[in-house]
Amino acid sequence: MVNRRMKTVTLKKLKDKLAKNKNPWIFSGAIHSADKGIINGETVKVLDSEKRFIAYGFYSEFSAITLRLFSWNEDETFGAGVFKQRLTSALAARKRLINSENTDSYRLLYGEADGLPGYIADIYSGHVGLQVNTASAVYYLPMMKEALTEIISPLSIYVRPADELAKKEMIRYPEQCIYGNTPESIIIKENGLKISASLISGQKTGYYFDQRENRRIAAAYARGQDVLDCFCYTGGFSLNASANGAKSITSVDSSADALSNLKENFALNGLEAPDTVKADIFEYLRERNADSQKHDIIILDPPKLAKSQSSVEQALRAYKDLNMLGMKKMKNNGIFISFSCSGRVSREDFIKSVAWAAKDAGRTLRITGFLSQSCDHPINPFFPESEYLKGIVGIVE
Q1: Predicted pLDDT of residue 293
Q2: Is residue 191 part of a domain?
Q3: Full strand arrangement of the beta sheet holding 119-124
């Protein structure tokens, strides 16, 4: 594909500042005009109001985010080589960041932060779990497949569409293996522990690598402690805490399948399974507030509570309620670890919600540390949306 043949999109005057500053998202309201006949998902040249080059981007006809920019170099020729270059760079960075002796699975490609919007690629002990999030991610999937097979030499590539692909991008893509043979479950290694993960039936691409370092940090407090792990999923925090000598662990999740997987993971590592509870966490904590049992460590890792800008206020109230319920179950001087994975909720607003939670719980919270996503989920400083995971460690009195 030769760049001079690309169709162009022109931005409105005074609506191009973020794009020129290398923020990759351009919303529909910033667009002045576009050439006719642009195919949903294809690459376009993006110009300012004076018809000067800004960047190349992927075009989404139906999404509110109409353009996702990936290159500000006008001389870069778009094609399979771009995918190979981005993957090569991403792999080199992960090899510098990840301790391969303790961890053999990680996020290889993190969309805009790695210069390929619309794609999430995770390595599972040689297999690739690939999530396609946009029209362009489907449109250029053959190029991505070629790059992955050449650069990574994977055992298999399993593709899953993001939940919002059909709704926001008007693209329907079937979940499928596009290379090799993907088994139902794969044994991966994280922080020296064995974990059974599924690219086929697990959430997202199959597992949450973004909490790897936070699991290790939380486990450092666990020796001899009574731990309550809420929204435990398949047991990442529980498993690390047990391996580091926790006295007792209660793991709570609403999914019976996740809890079954958790028990399997404990067995894989020769560890005694924790007490598991299948329950809605909010209801569980409300019911438990009537009893006298309290915990040395509580971990709250809820799913995304703000899925759109309009739901942020409601999400902040939910975060406040959840953290209030959690803090009421803390022993004095207990370790409180809480997260938000809602990208639309700022770190500042999340901390405010936790502060109000402490007040309403009648407890004193002293924050001793801030947590973020693992190093294989890099944050683009020009793209604050790439920082979605916010967490705190604190002491509750």
Answers
A1: 85
A2: no
A3: 105-110, 119-124, 127-132, 156-161, 176-180
Measure CA 185 to chain center: 21
Distance CA 89, CA 328 (A): 46
Domain span at residue 20 reads: 3-71
- Is the Cβ–Cβ distance between 57 and 26 less than 8 Å? yes
> For 111-124, what is the mean pLDDT?
96
Q: How far apart are CA 383 and CA 23, in angstroms?
A: 5
- What pLDDT does residue 311 have? 85
User: Judging by beta carbons within 10 Å of its beta carbon (0-12, 13-18, 19+), is residue 23 exposed, middle or buried?
Assistant: middle
Q: Averaged over 233-240, what is the pLDDT?
A: 97
Instruction: Provide mean pLDDT across the span 149-159.
Output: 97
Instruction: Supply 371's token pair.
Output: 């947590």
Sort 173 into a burial class: Cβ within 10 Å, 0-12 / 13-18 / 19+.
middle
Question: In terms of domains, do 172 and 264 share one?
Answer: no
Q: Tell me the pTM.
A: 0.93
Q: Is residue 134 part of a domain?
A: yes
